[in-house]
Amino acid sequence: MLLFLLVFLPACTFFQQFGRYRPEHAPAEEAARVQFPFIIPEESRLNVPGVTATAIQLAMDDFRPRNTRPHSGATPEEACLYRRESFNVSAFPGPEGVVFVRFVLDPEACSLSDPILDVGATYAVDVRGWRILAVDY
């Protein structure tokens, strides 16, 4: 029984940590070179309500999951379509408790030889239960 606990408990801790995502942080010497502005000019601010930001994150995690990699042998165009930053995002309130989140390919993000029209999606996110209600591709 003791052997079981010695093996099982560390495994539980490992799998609990495995599910969490933490972004990479720059080394201290690089971070020390960053100078934060004392005042952010009004015209430069982008204020996003927390509910909207969370709805965007939830939808993005489904649309382009973190750390998803292109398939082996992907062209540069295909690899670009896997990147989260290749998509512009808009969000707007829907009926009670719903936020719509739309992802549209940024036309300048990928140098595509042919235009692609159906690569985006619109999500209906339930911001009360934090779940995806529906997706329109």
Keywords:
137 residues, 4-stranded antiparallel beta sheet, 4 helices
Explain how this protein is built.
- This protein has about 140 residues and is an alpha+beta fold.
- The chain has four helices and four strands; from the N terminus they run ααααββββ.
- It has helices at about 1-20, 30, 50-65, 75-80, and strands spanning about 85-95, 100-105, 120-125, 130-135.
- It is about 30% helix and about 20% strand.
- It has a four-stranded antiparallel beta sheet, with helices on one face.
How would the blueprint of this fold be written?
Elements: H1 2-18, H2 28-31, H3 50-63, H4 76-82, E1 87-93, E2 98-105, E3 121-126, E4 131-136
Antiparallel strand pairs: 1-2, 2-3, 3-4
Please provide a brief summary of the model.
With 137 residues, the protein is of the alpha+beta class. Helices cover 31% and strands 20% of the residues.
